[in-house]
């Protein structure tokens, strides 16, 4: 299963053109940053309501703010959603999440 995920991410990297990435920069930073930030804050607030330490709450919030790019892209490809506006917006959010994992 891990090999399949690695191969899927490799294929995604091959399909990603630098020009497309530059065109998506506003959605990537705006939508992606908003999704990760809001999800982290909401989940962190819920975790703090359960009397967890703020560091644990932050870790849980960051974990819940991410999703699996390989699974979502495979589903989009199967349903033909990757060429729609919603599909491209979702892809930019997924790409931001992949980049956001690096400093975590």
Automatic annotation (TrEMBL):
Pfam families: Na_H_Exchanger. GO terms for biological process: proton transmembrane transport. GO terms for cellular component: plasma membrane. The keyword Transmembrane helix applies. Its main location: membrane. The chain crosses the membrane at residues 28-50, 56-73. Residues 1-103 form the Cation/H+ exchanger transmembrane domain. It is a multi-pass membrane protein. Keywords: Membrane, Transmembrane, Transmembrane helix. One of its GO terms (molecular function) is antiporter activity. It is found in: Membrane. This is Cation:proton antiporter. The lineage of its organism: Bacteria, Bacillati, Bacillota, Bacilli, Bacillales.
């Amino acid at each position: 299963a891990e090999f399949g995920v690695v191969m899927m991410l490799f294929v995604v990297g091959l399909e990603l053109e630098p020009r497309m990435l530059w065109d998506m920069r506003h959605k990537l930073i705006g939508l992606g940053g908003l999704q990760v930030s809001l999800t982290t804050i909401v989940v962190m607030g819920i975790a703090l309501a359960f009397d967890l330490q703020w560091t644990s709450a932050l870790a849980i919030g960051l974990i819940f703010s991410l999703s699996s790019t390989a699974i979502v892209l495979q589903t989009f490809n199967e349903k033909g959603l990757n060429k729609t506006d919603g599909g491209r917006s979702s892809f930019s959010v997924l790409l931001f999440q992949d980049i956001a994992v690096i400093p975590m």
